[in-house]
Amino acid sequence: MGTGSGDGLTVSKLYFDIQEVLFKEGDPATSLFIIEDGEVEVYQTSGARTVSLSRLGPGEVVGEQALIDRATHSRGARAITPVIALEIPPDQLKAVLENSHTLARLLLQHMARKLDQTADIAFGTPRPAEEPEPSEGVGEILGQ
pTM to 2 decimals? Predict the structure, then answer.
């Protein structure tokens, strides 16, 4: 379902059932997803083993690294509760970031948290989980 953002941008609101996949490892990066409601698991597989890497909730973003790099997804993402997400395709991402400094800031904060978590795992020094800062609703950020 397409929704306008009030400034010429079009995003889609998608609904995912429990265990429904947003994207799989190796899939081409076609969209960035902003979780509006529900919880998403980011996972990676190695042979028959699947490892849960993180859980993301409302206001968080998934799929951004592969999309920014124009690469394929190195991890998968699936709904672990019913999920409502806004989908932003590559051609709209640049315009969204140019028109929403709040969204750009949230995306950068999210990516910095992911880098910190990766470094913590790599060096075996996990920090206590931090709750994301409260922010405007996704709809307000996109002008919906």
Answer: 0.70
